[in-house]
Queue: 4 jobs
Job 1
Amino acid sequence: MPVATVKYYLREGLLPPGTPTSRTQAQYDEEHVRRLRLVRALLDVGG
């Protein structure tokens, strides 16, 4: 998934923030991956 898509989901509140690892990077866990899959599946089904 493109970084721009993840940033958009973060801005829109569809994805909770990750754990910051530096000023410009964050770490995401399996829960984030599940949420990304859910959002993608809902977009595929409902547009």
Job 2
Amino acid sequence: MAGKKKSRMKSGDFVLTIVVLGLVVFGVIMVFSSSYYNAINDSGDPYDYLKKDIVWAMLGLGAMMFCALFDYRIYAKFAPTILIADLVLLALLFTPLGVTRNYATRWIGIGEFTIMPGEIAKIAAIIFVSWYLSKDPKTIRSFTKGVLPMLGLCGAFFGLIILQPNLSTAITVCGIIIGIMFVAGLNVMYLGGILGIGAVGITFMILTDEGGYRLKRLTSFLDPFQDPLGDGYQVIQSLLALGSGGLFGVGLGKSIQKTLYLPEPQNDFIFAIIGEELGYIGCLALIACYIILIWRGTHIALNAPDMFGTLLASGITIMLAIQVVLNIAVVTSSMPPTGITLPFVSYGGNALMLFMGSMGILLNISRHSAR
């Protein structure tokens, strides 16, 4: 038995490792394909986004390897510190260190280096909530000791992130926290009440928005062809890309919509370019890879050696699932645009490192699990 346990500690979840590395390589290829004309237009170098994405992928690989070897139980000791550090970073966005792009202040910049505290907030929330609720399994059953503090945390994150403004990330972080609460044993009545209050609150924010920006995004989702050159333009170009791909696609690198028709095709709407170049079959294959990752994450959570490991793995899996569903829903015009990236595939260094590091944590938890 000792020999078997030792052998288990030397390896992690092989399927998860292969799928993640495959998605990252696929993402680098698709970022290059989708960004080629944008890169020429922005910097004159067609390989600009490719070179940057490769650097971030290598850094992400380092983060993944480190987290796979670093004992996940140590995170519990520093959970409050990690939470406070991220809240401070979120507050620093509203100082001269904050970098504004496209009317949103989501980055902290020091020279050429920038970080996104909103992305870090996802993993900080996962670690803290997992630690807090795993100390005593009965905590979540108490409204004052379990539910109320977590709702307060949701409010703190939501308030700081929505000011950027970044509604999609704020909703994602709150969704992760509520998801972990549910896994920990949140009463269904409380869950229904929280979701109801959240829905009412978001609706109120949309309807009372002074500039009407959020309401316009909502109406553009309901009928993007009502304003084809304005709010509905990006969604329409996305649908045209998906429709042009057909069953097998037009071929890798042969997309028409990436030739400056679809704005920022290497970011939030990269799934549309995948659909155009690789077709319906390519999209299905990609979705199947994400389903495998969610399955392996759920398996790791169920077999974790302790409550903290279970909640930590569950939170990471919930984060992955939320972002995949939201991104694909936006690209297919099933919900309003949110600005959520497609994990491992979309261009974006902070998000790529976050997800690869998170997969490393999952691998570490799997290494500590009994066979």
Job 3
Amino acid sequence: MSQRITIPEQELVERFVRSAGPGGQNVNKVATAVELRFDIAQSPTLPEPVRARLLSKRDRRVTAEGVLVLNAQRFRTQDRNRQDARERLAAFVESGLRAPKARIATKPSRAAKARRLDAKRERSTIKKGRSQRDWD
């Protein structure tokens, strides 16, 4: 099941701001950093199960209103930062395409239980040996 989602340009909001960090005059004068916003909650492009999975993620980049905010300032040029932000958006949406596999509850085997209890017993005797003061 190879599912592809193409997000149209109208759903993306880009804002160009000045980058933080070192760089001298270039950083102080040129707005090369990109702030990309994508409204997951209101997007007509996303299928409902994908939207639910993306919104349920505990990601600090997703606001309470369901808007994904990506800041890209890794590169010196605006174009490269813009490309980086879009790649990260694609990776984020891609992560919501696959439904997580349901966990199958299992029980420890009898041998595993015995090993655990033996280890506990062994540890207990080691600790008991430390507390007994039989100096006489």
Job 4
Amino acid sequence: MRIALAGAGRIGARHAAALARSPHVTELIIADADPRRAAALADRLHPASVSTAPVSTAPMSTAKASAASVRGLPSVDELFGARPDAFVIAAATDAHAALVGRAVALGSPVFCEKPLAPDVDGTLQIIRDAESAQVPVQVGFQRRFDAGYRAARDAVTSGRLGWLHTVRSCGFDPAPPPADYVPVSGGLFRDCMIHDLDSVRFVTGREVVRVIAAGANRGDAFFRECGDVDTGAALLVLDDGTLGLLAATRYNAAGYDVRLEVFGSKDSVVAGLDARTPLAPLPDGAAGRGTPYSGFLERFAAAYDAELDAFLQVAAGASANPCPPAEALEAFYLAEACDLSRREGRAVDVEEVRR
């Protein structure tokens, strides 16, 4: 399978390495807004041998290993002229919608990092275009592929936990992003907490009907200057009465901390709690703690691999799309509702923001 990758930055480089070693990929073509960055990434990944084996429909974990041919192109436009079998979009957020639209117009399956578009209208347009072209578009919500989150979902659906009363989720970054990223990020709720919002839906199988959210700025001024917050929290009311408690921050110097706790009438479980969770037990302090995860790329390394493996199966027509645009739209609605609640200081019914 010939795969085109748009974006050679941090997440793009990570996806490129996974795709280059996939037995399903015979050629990986990389382009970036900065052609030198695409060329440098291709040079780092170019293998000594090239596989011309036919596409396998076996999972990557069981298929025979092979190495893909890797090359960089001078521009993103040339990716579309190369007519690949599928596209992986890991470019800057504000370029997602246009790139996904062009790939869909070619009839190519697409994997795109969230968000598909910077707003609801753009997301709806992609959904319409993909449905009209009958082309699968998979959205990058990697927590859905994490072993802990999937086990939590299984615990819920099996009835092991009984009926749920509380779900708690946190997403704490060790340090803020660059100042120039924040104005184009969509804000804390759309950029960070959207993962927690999607995870609540994924694990519980329920919909959120009402939110109450708040935000704070205790760190760098650039968050406040562009109307964003560096710390946020939300109370969710699910359609069966379960309550969700979410928290996110850009400042957690102890280390990267992402967890989901699910409490039921019979039992409770947690995903993301291990020896590297940056929490100091009291009164013993930090004794026994391991080195915290450096960030999301390390914490969810296996999930990113599983996510791309799933996409390659979708692109080959071997499996159904595990995260279609409609799922991204629901998470976007919830992020919109949270941000509206934060700005207006009131409870918001999710129906208020639906189109």
